[in-house]
């Protein structure tokens, strides 16, 4: 695995999360929250585009990377290949991934290339805002007697999906293990405060494996439906 491969794996995570969040722009929790989620979704897509650019893809290459590769070529975290259609699960996933984004971007800010350092700092700052947003929801749902049990029940299903966020091939072993430990430490306080144990996240990252039984094929089919071929009348307009 090269560093560029790792950037592309993280870009997959960000793009898929941005797409999955987009349904909440119109499937209202409330209007203000829908606007906030729309902003987070757009920033996730923008972060994915930035990572793909630094991995060496031009505009056409990025388009092909997202819209033309078969499902077997993707290696995202298990956390973004399940639809998790309810709000508590969406909140938990958003919180975990925002925390991953903040911690992982620190690695970019330590890169030798100045442009990567700058991008890492910007992405980390924006992910910090996402963390604050989702952490507030974790606290509200977890402390409310009407929703606390549901949040904890969802956590039992969502947290095990996150064990591979810092796993290979997205991160090498040394960086992955250090980042995983820092990430678990960062989320343990807020989650423990609402009765959610972080034990399911594990002590070291799991490698990214086969995603059989996931919703990835269906999700990618939805994403790629606008890019069905050069003669469809859509691609030409886009380019």
UniProtKB/TrEMBL annotation:
Coiled coil: none annotated. It comes from the Bacteria. This is 1,2-phenylacetyl-CoA epoxidase, catalytic subunit. One of its GO terms (biological process) is phenylacetate catabolic process. It comes from Blastococcus aggregatus. Pfam families: PaaA_PaaC.
